[in-house]
Amino acid sequence: MRLFFALFGFALLTAAAPAPKPVPVTRTASGTYVLGSPAARVKLVEYASYTCSHCADFSTQSQAVLKGKMIASGSTSLEFRHMIRDRLDLAAAVLARCTGPRGFFPTSAAIFAAQPAWLEKGIEFQQVNAARINLYPRPAQLKAYADGAGLTDLVKARGLSAAAIDACFADTAEIDRILAITAAAPPEVDSTPSFFINGKVMPHGGWTQLEPALRTAGAR
């Protein structure tokens, strides 16, 4: 009987434990998204492309520590800036942003995780259909490439409706905003991914090289 009450009491304590607070996401005046506390002492800026294999590697390798610990602790924030390289990249950016501030970072991670499959499919689709699709208006081109690569199905599986997707590709102002983020990149951004910590450009490299620099700056 004592064991029963001890276990029951433990269950009540476990059930009463408060859920962790969600990490804040904000949108800047230029249209970029920032994950983490606005008061974070370490401000990481990433310039990345969805069709960049090194960016996909960074997303996967950094996930547990960067987002799971450093950003979750409040010590670090991450601002993602698009560095658009091609139409498939732009199509992926439209879809990631279509999920809104709360969905942007998880959807970006999902796009990077599935990159080998959709990128190969998208390149093949583009090679076969480019002459025809290039006659379309730009929003219709991007939607066609997203459909052909399987990107549209990827975000639909995450709960985005067909109507919402159509509306996002029809939003030419948002597409222009994505391209403007790329155009505003400083000259130090000559490859992807590129990183800045508290305004200082980092040497080119992946998560293995960046993690020590973040910890030196105060990430924990």
UniProtKB/TrEMBL annotation:
State the UniProt keywords alphabetically. Answer: Isomerase, Signal
Q: Which residues form the signal peptide?
A: 1-21
Q: Where is the Thioredoxin-like fold domain?
A: 30-203
Which domain of life, per UniProt? Bacteria
A molecular function (GO) term: isomerase activity
Quote the InterPro entries the UniProt record gives.
Thioredoxin-like_fold, Thioredoxin-like_sf
Q: Does the keyword Signal apply?
A: yes
**Name the UniProt record assigns to this protein:** Protein-disulfide isomerase
